Amino acid sequence: MRALVTGAAGFIGSTLVDRLREDGHQVVGLDNFATGRAVNIEHLAGDAGFTFVEADIVSADLQAILAQHQPEVVFHLAAQIDVRHSVADPVFDASVNVVGTIRLADAARMAGVRKIVHTSSGGSIYGTPAHYPTGEDVPADPASPYAAGKVAGEIYLNTFGHLYGLQCSHIAPANVYGPRQDPHGEAGVVAIFAQALLEGRPTKVFGDGSNTRDYVFVDDVVDAFVRASGEQGNGQRFNVGTGVETSDRQLHTAVAAAVGAPDDPEFHPLRLGDLKRSCLDISRGADVLGWRPQVALADGVTRTVEYFRQVKTV
């Protein structure tokens, strides 16, 4: 398979590139380094099976790039991922997450791409549902422009499928964590806790610590992307999580234990747009893709902490 990965220098994107190369696929990686980091793909320099293109998904150059490289499958991970920023500047958020996705879909159908595997957001698009774990059939109820843009991306890609026969599947991850996650970003709480505790800095929990999330290890998420690249699951969304709720307080305790640091976070007021709970029903992915998470939280947190012990981040 010849694949193109947008957001290839990002946390999840670079891990996906590594998996695709390990599986023997030819990969074209695309990133504008807005949030992606060159260090995440520098080990691929000299790899004849990997080609990197520095470009933006909102650029008019996208059509020429896909026409040149002729991928069979496009894994679309490039995005504006900061929920707070989406609230502050919803127009910019939509310009990347909605317009960028439309540009990619249009370029893909003109280049003869078979399928786009799109990144949605299981951790945000359902808002505050009546039941947990939350399944894909629950209507989307976005509580932020970021979440709304992810839903819009799904709708546009499915529309391109109806119009042009372009296949698509939507991977809706819960809260992803693991090596290469940005410890200075807004969303990567495991990385943020790990880096701060390793450096002896204070950690912040927003709210009273009872808010819950469904934490899924990056390798498990990448496996779902790869499984969704086949013929199955066309037009469907797949929740990718664990089906287990972990509170912010429990997570801090787990990271502190892995670091060997005091479990003593500072508590701050909740932020605008924060959800009280999030937990995903992952049975559709198991039934259709044969996908199930393999990495337990304690193991994944330990592996993430060990990564940050060894790697200096900037």
Automatic annotation (TrEMBL):
Source domain of life: Bacteria
Domain NAD-dependent epimerase/dehydratase: 3-241
InterPro entries: Epimerase_deHydtase, NAD(P)-bd_dom_sf
Pfam families: Epimerase (PF01370)
PANTHER family, sorted: DTDP-D-GLUCOSE 4,6-DEHYDRATASE-RELATED
Family to which this protein belongs: Belongs to the NAD(P)-dependent epimerase/dehydratase family.
Protein name: UDP-glucose 4-epimerase
Organism encoding this protein: Mycolicibacter heraklionensis
Lineage, top ranks: Bacteria, Bacillati, Actinomycetota, Actinomycetes, Mycobacteriales
